[in-house]
Amino acid sequence: MEITHEDFKKVETAINDVKEEGRQIRSIFDSYSDENFGIDWEVDAAVDAFSIFSSRWTIEILATLYIAGERRFNEMRKLLRGISSRTLSDKLTKCSESGLVDRVVEDGPPIRVIYRLTDHGRDAGRLLGPLVAYMKIHQDRVVRHSQ
Amino acid sequence: MEITHEDFKKVETAINDVKEEGRQIRSIFDSYSDENFGIDWEVDAAVDAFSIFSSRWTIEILATLYIAGERRFNEMRKLLRGISSRTLSDKLTKCSESGLVDRVVEDGPPIRVIYRLTDHGRDAGRLLGPLVAYMKIHQDRVVRHSQ
DNA sequence: GTATCTAGTGTATAAAATGCACCATAGTGT
DNA sequence: ACACTATGGTGCATTTTATACACTAGATAC
Fold first, then answer.
1. Contact state of B124 with A132 under an 8 Å Cβ cutoff
2. A115 has which bridge partners?
3. What tens digit of pLDDT does each residue of B44-96 get?
4. Given A31, A43, A135, which is nearest B50 (Cβ)?
5. For strand C, is any atom closer than 7 Å to the CB of B111?
């Protein structure tokens, strides 16, 4: 996807700001490093904080709902090409249980089920956004318009 | 871990800034949504951008090296409690192949192998930082000092 | 000689993801 | 009446991925 120089610069700047933000957060946490809360604790906490995301499709589901807004089961299946309905079903249940996604049943007929991010899920999506944008640029999927 | 009001506020502010940054990036990409680069394309690109992270331990390895700095094989194994040496070995190879991690052999004896983030890996780590901090706060692993 | 450190491999098993068939309910087409 | 579509999934066999645990080789210390 080609975007204008102006927009590219905006995205680049936003990404750089986030890197700086990340650096600051890191340095604050570093300053608390002692015998009780050392590297071990922090790696542990990070692994734990990420445990919900650290299996296939969870982050992808989050990103999809963040990008596409609320969707129904089969719509998600089409968007997430390659996921089996079995896995999608399982993962949506997990996302729902962990408070990232709301499962909303609209009674029909036909009954429709809508999945949408909770506030927590939306926050996570926004925090993930800059990394996704960075990766897209890194992989040349998003490029500056050449004129 | 308890941190001062001041530091808590700094971290909170940084996280909020990143959310806002994420919102802006999203709105820029949204504005390019058309028949060629619609939701389908963007979900695809996001899934693809994240494919390197979307299996267990990859993000944890990244976070560990980001938090702890460069480490040797067995040091990582201790930090990432629960990973098998087999899996760690495989994942480090993948991380190395995908340019996130450098494998540096210091010849001995004994030969020591150091793993460290590449610039790309460090950038990814920094971009991931705010989300990890947000999750830590969300899970009450990092709290404001009660005085 | 035995134990320890290094960075991993080999292999059997367990867990997770996939592919594909299938379910019930309802509506539409011919 | 009969087939076909769409809804949101479940069941089950197969494949892929991760784990547990034993084990390797080269060098040092005891």
1. no
2. A71, A103
3. 999 999 999 999 999 999 999 999 999 999 999 999 999 999 999 999 999 99
4. A135
5. yes
